[in-house]
Amino acid sequence: MKPTLLTFVFSLALSMPGLLAASSTPNVLVIVADDLGYADVGSQGGKAVPTPHLDALASRGVRCTAGYVSAPYCSPSRAGFLTGRAQTRFGHEFNPHVGDETKLGLPLEERTIADHLKAAGSKTGLIGKWHQGFSPAHHPQSRGFDEYFGFLVGGHNFILHKKAEAHFGSAHSHDMIYRGREVQKLDGYTTDLFTDEALSFMKRQGENPWFLYLAYNAVHTPLEVLEKHRARIPAEVTDPARVGYLSLLIGLDDSVGRLLADLRSSGRDQDTLIFFFSDNGGSGRKPFLAYNTGVNTPLRGDKGQTLEGGIRVPFFVSWPGQLPAGKVYDEPVSTLDILPTALAAVAAKPITDSLEGVNLLPYLRGEKTTAPHEALFWRFGPQKAIRQGNWKLVQWRDFESKQNSAWQLYDLSQDVSEQKDLAAQHPERVTALSQAWTTWDAQNVAPLWHGSPNEDPTAPEKPRKKAK
Fold first, then answer.
1. What's the burial of 371, exposed, middle or buried (CB within 10 Å: 0-12/13-18/19+)?
2. Mean pLDDT of 283-300
3. CATH, domain range 376-441
């Protein structure tokens, strides 16, 4: 029998596995750490404990040294990533605190990355932290996610016990672990449980494309130490808070290793685009509600501030065979770019026309040599920032004094630590950048709810409890 064109093409595909992979819809895995310090990962200069698996993820793809989140705090940062839009466009400027739960959370008219990728044919899952609202209408399974396993609020204990009635210091049911919409009673360690669920989700999809948002609560407080990790923490580390943080970091790194090993052994690593980032900078200052000893060196500032330490985070993008391995990319990129990049990877169009991020693939491949963004912008209560090229103009808040700075200007190519304010030497640049920020801000809306008094000085102070 003579070989047909079809059998020839099939034989060619078998001899070139990448050809088959390139013709299929890839999976998209977004891994988010919580409050991870910029310099606590080995590939970012961290030396406190080894992070071989996070380093391997960075080296198998592109490490973006100027990766930014759209807000320096958990919930608004995630709202930006989830929608591909600046969260100040729709009023999600602060963490949702106590109030009318029908109005607290990601506005219902906004479409999420799960909505977009589900419309493109991917099975969608969220495992871990949500923090985008608590009402049934705000639940992940009402926001594009087919499956959900995790917690709805901003923080959670790591070590779980079935008999415990509450987590994270409250008896409110929102603090529980959910499978779908049902509360679960569980024993275990959340980082490991979330990883188990992720592996199960990926396996159950078989050859069908999937999108998974894996939102670990590590390395957010509470800084609980898992005993199996303690022996791996250097003896010279004696600060209990730092020991707890490093224990959580070890658990996170181990879990990333399990994920990468599973993708390799199943043959799906070539078909999976992976993003890794932290939702904001580490919280390395005292006193602070979520102080975790995170190290942001050489950046100045911490979680909650528009200084580099609050908004510039570890940011890795990996897609073997499609993106270069071991590349370091220095141009500014944003978590707003993840949604349009994922859509480009699966060859799908957005279901809305309001995305503000860009497709990073041609930039990371070197096909485009210009910067992805003309400028990046931030607003967080009284804090403001714009980065244009190497210049950054910023107003930031000192949480100890509760004072806001005037505009300060920094040349990040020479002063990434934001130590030398050049505003007086370059008044014309201050004027131009501040005007650009004002033009951008004109498209924002007022916050839908107050932040804490530190974030938002117009917020009412919480009433103090009377001494017993």
1. middle
2. 91
3. 3.30.1120.10
Q: How far apart are CA 274 and CA 158, in angstroms?
A: 25
Cα torsion 84, 85, 91, 97: sign: positive
Total-model pTM: 0.93
Contact 163, 184 (CB under 8 A): no
DSSP 29: E
Q: Does residue 154 contact residue 75 with C-beta atoms inside 8 Å? A: yes
How many CB atoms within 10 Å of residue 253? Answer: 23
The values of phi and psi at residue 242, to 5°, are -65, -40
Residue type, 155: G
Q: H or E stretch including 115?
A: helix 113-119
Q: Which CATH superfamily, name and number, covers 24-364?
A: Alkaline Phosphatase, subunit A (3.40.720.10)
- Residue 462 has a pLDDT of 62
Question: Where exactly are the structural domains of the chain?
Answer: 24-364, 376-441
Q: Which of 350, 204, 213, 315 lies closest to 268 in space, CA to CA?
A: 204
Give the tokens for residue 273.
Answer: 């685009």
96-111 pLDDT tens trace: 976 788 889 999 999 9
Q: Please, what is the average pLDDT of the chain?
A: 91
